[in-house]
Design goal:
The chain is of the alpha+beta class. It has five helices and seven strands. The longest helix has 18 residues.
Amino acid sequence: MRSLYGRGDCAANRLNRLGTLTYRGDGVHDPRQVRADAAAFFRTLREDLGGQPLPYVWVPEWHPGGHGLHLHFAVGRYIKRSLIEQAWGHGFVHIKLLGDLPVDAGRLEESRLSARYLSKYIVKDSQALEGLHRYEVAQGFQPRRESFTAATGAEALAVISTQMARAPEYVWWSSEGEDWQGPPAVWASWAA
């Protein structure tokens, strides 16, 4: 199971800055176009930053007002807003270092908070995403896969909670979803 949390993409790569990219005008309603634009954005941004590998995660979200899709992303380094605006070129840009954490919190805690924010968008309605991934990770920056065997979902959660050193803040069971038609599944998120 891939996760954006804990030992997942954001934490593994210390992605502690959260950004949003929107489209001007009527927006873009084609998920494939958004993916092409995101790929071009991150390729341009990486080149503008000197061509070195750039870890990132991005998640599409449907704008609640019907304006189409926009992107939320996380990176792990300071990038001038003007550089992001130049690389995006499609509309509004916002980026910030995550705060509201205890004074002794470090990059790991910041990146876990980033993962928590992005996870909210992953579990939102995937309307019209045409079977595409709910999020994308920079090539070469996927976390190391960890496998284990558990007889039940509860046992699996116990194992993962031990690895995370805390109980999950939120757990969703497919058995609770009246419309769920897939195999049994569980989704969990841990607090920052």
